[in-house]
Amino acid sequence: MKYWRKPLDVERIKVPRGRVYVIEERCKGCNFCIEFCPVGVLAASEGFNAKGYHPPYPQNEEACTNCGLCEVICPEFAIYSLPRDGKEEEPHE
Amino acid sequence: MSGDIACAEGALSAGCRFFAGYPITPATEIAERMAERMPQLGGVYIQMEDEIASMNAILGASWGGLRAMTATSGPGFSLMMENLGLGIMTETPCVLVNVQRGGPSTGLPTLVGQGDMMQARWGTHGVYEIIALSPSSPQEFFDLTVRAFNLAEKYRTPVLVMADEVVGHMTERVTIPEEVPCFPRRKPEFPPGDRSSFPPDEDLVPPMANVGEGYHIHVTGLTHDERGYPVTDEVTQERLVRRLVEKIRGHKKDIIRLEEKGVEGAEVIVCSYGISARVGLWAVELAKREGIKAGMLKLLTVWPFPEERVREVASKVKAFVVPEINYGQIALEVERSAGGRAEVIPLNHMGGGLHEPEDILKAIRKAAR
Amino acid sequence: MSQVEKPTVIPLKHPRESLLREERLPHIWCSGCGIGTALNCFIGALEKSGLPWDKVAIVSGIGCAGRAAGYIKLDSFHTTHGRAIPFATGLRLANPELKVVIFSGDGDLIAIGGNHFIHAARRNIDMTVICVNNFNYGMTGGQVGPTTPAMAKTTTSPYGNSEHPFNLPYLAAASGAVYVARWTTLHVRRLERSLTEALLKEGFSFVEVISPCPTYFDRMNRLGEGLDMMKSYQESSEIVHGFDPRKADIDLRGKIIVGKFIDIEKPTYLDFQKEIQARVEGEPS
Fold first, then answer.
1. Which residues, at least 6 apart from B304, have a Cβ–Cβ distance to it below 8 Å?
2. CA of B192: which chain C residue's CA is closest?
3. pLDDT value of position C5
4. B3-169 and B259-368 share one CATH topology?
5. What phi and psi, each to the nearest 5 degrees, are found at residue A89?
């Protein structure tokens, strides 16, 4: 990350990590999340959902900082991220 | 006190604590009285930008938990029609008073008319039933306004009080009782939670949660299912609209009030409402003095129309004389209900004044022959 | 049946779902439409505002944006066309504990409901009005509206619009609004912050949200898909807080000034009411 003025505590702050969850059936393929993810985590999947759209998937999940932009820019409430603290959380079903 | 003041006082006695309106002759005195009295009682008076807004404001206030009313006349009544429909569809208790004047259009702002009776029945679009009451004196204006609030809560629907300029402006003695009957809001028995709407009770009327009670209700003017969610199809429309109609039609006995004088044994019946019923009663008395068997059927409830009673009376009398200040509106209903069993004589006045008792008497004489 | 390779485990619950009528999703809005994003930001703002959800009501009118009331798990009202504001006025005054939010579109609030809009702002009734502006009537198929830029094409201005549009922040400010902001659906963070401020502001607050309408307006004017519009906002929008709303007009393909334009204090309708109440109680009866 580039700063035009370096924050004093930049060495002490750990960049948070996140994991992205996609509710595929809600996706209408607008691609807002893919385009505007600041660290390029997402890409359109090859397959279709039931409505015929290509939902996003985290092709580069390691980069996710759990910033939540995808969650708030998504018009469909179809994507969100949660913090990942190294521990593997319960798999969602 | 004047009829308009009696109406305002009736509303306040019935617990009305929200009034939204727009100045219009001859209903303005109701708003003025409310503006003076509401702050004294901790209620809300607001003058809106027009009658469309007034009607909507009382719907909102009703969902906010207050008994709410607006009052208007001809042109304002026309503007309220759109959201009268919203009130019917969303089953919102409220009272709409129309102090009728001569129309169409701006017509006769300061003079009497009864030309909005069919508009009261059919003014908003779509399929529905409506409750409309009609007072013929300041005392009745008080009493029927109280009743309108109670019917509104009981059946969860807007109720119309169809007065007229003469009743609104005439001054007579009005007795205000210490206490008036009060039908409380039908509250849900379910505990607050995420319940968007409530199923109707046995009488087809659903309970109503106010805003802020934690139910997270959803209310829409679209055709909706029992969860309150829009479902725009034939089946849902059938189920919802049939219930909205039936909850009123099925309770006609409770809703309809008539005042009968000398109907048993009569040959000619004067059937009327509002100020015309008063002139009609005078004519009936004059006819009786002449030995004519005349009776009076005064409609305190105009809608739903008391067709059963009119039909019953029709089989025993020669004729109905129906004086009203329009070109024949309720006369058509009397004719429909009588179904040819008795002659129906409409007695029309175009507005701006009342019938002469003599004119009604002439019609009674003719009908009795 | 989904043919998607499972990218990750299936999620249980979207964090916004505590405020969504989740059983009603997916919503009716088109792919690339910004109304869902505006709603998303509003829910985020509501969470951040700390307002008690049971005391917040949302009122909508008719149109695409008007459907928002049906998706939010608050006391919610979907009223008639243009009438959300007077309905909300009654609701707000009947129960002073409530926070009332109007979420609707430009046609609903500003054309058919325009008179109610200016009068509620004039009275400084305590309410937040969120206007999603997509420059046309989407629900009925893309007709010209009160915010359609001059010369823009719609289904009822097929050769171009010969009317001037309203500049909404200017209209709101001139009518008396105490808080006026404009953002696009691209400015999600700033929009969310602005909506939080508006929710917590006493008096009439107004937030305009510029949104793509890929199905009608953007297509008719060859502006591209929803994503193209979102990208275009990066170029065309400029953040200028405190900007004079008189100069905040929007032309077709022109610059869009966004930001917080107005944030002032003045007595609300209810403040005056309290004063009047005290006056009445002080009078000998």
1. B129, B130, B131, B248, B249, B252, B255, B256
2. C54
3. 55
4. yes
5. -80, 170
Number of residues that make up chain C = 285
Task: Report d(CA A40, CA A43) in Å as an integer.
Answer: 8
pLDDT at C236 over 70: yes
A89 touches chain C (CB under 8 A): no
3-state secondary structure of B31: helix
Fold of B259-368: Rossmann fold (3.40.50)
Between the alpha carbon of residue A8 and those of residues A3, A11, A12, A14, A65, the distances in Å are 11, 8, 9, 13, 20
Bond prior to B104 in cis (omega within 30° of 0)? yes
Work out the pLDDT band at C285, boundaries 50, 70, 90: low
Closest by alpha carbon to C14, among A71, A89, A58?
A71
Domains and CATH numbers, chain A: 18-83 (3.30.70.20)
* ipTM of predicted complex: 0.96
| Beta strands at B258-261 and B294-299: parallel, antiparallel or unpaired | antiparallel
Q: What are C171-200's pLDDT values in tens digits?
A: 999 999 999 999 999 999 999 999 999 999
For chain C, what are the domain ranges? Answer: 28-279
Topology (CATH) of B3-169: Rossmann fold (3.40.50)
User: What's the average model confidence in pLDDT over C259-281?
Assistant: 96
The residue ranges of every structural domain in chain B are 3-169, 259-368
On whether any CB of chain A is under 8 Å from the CB of C26, the answer is: yes
CATH of domain C28-279: 3.40.50.970
Residues of chain B with pLDDT under 70: 194
Inspect the structure and tell me whether chains A and C have 3 or more CB pairs less than 8 Å apart.
Answer: yes
Residue C73 contacts B, CB cutoff 8 Å: yes
Q: Is the pLDDT of residue A93 over 50?
A: no
Closest partner residue to C9 (CB to CB) among A26, A74, A92 is A92
Cβ <8 Å between B213 and C80: no
Beta-strand runs (E) in A1-93:
18-22, 42-44, 56-58, 79-83
User: Backbone dihedral region of B174: left (phi > 0), alpha (psi from -120 to 50 degrees) or beta?
Assistant: beta
Q: Are C214 and C131 in contact (CB under 8 A)?
A: no
> What's the CA gap between B262 and B362, in Å, rounded?
19
Q: Is A30 on the interface with C (CB under 8 A)?
A: yes
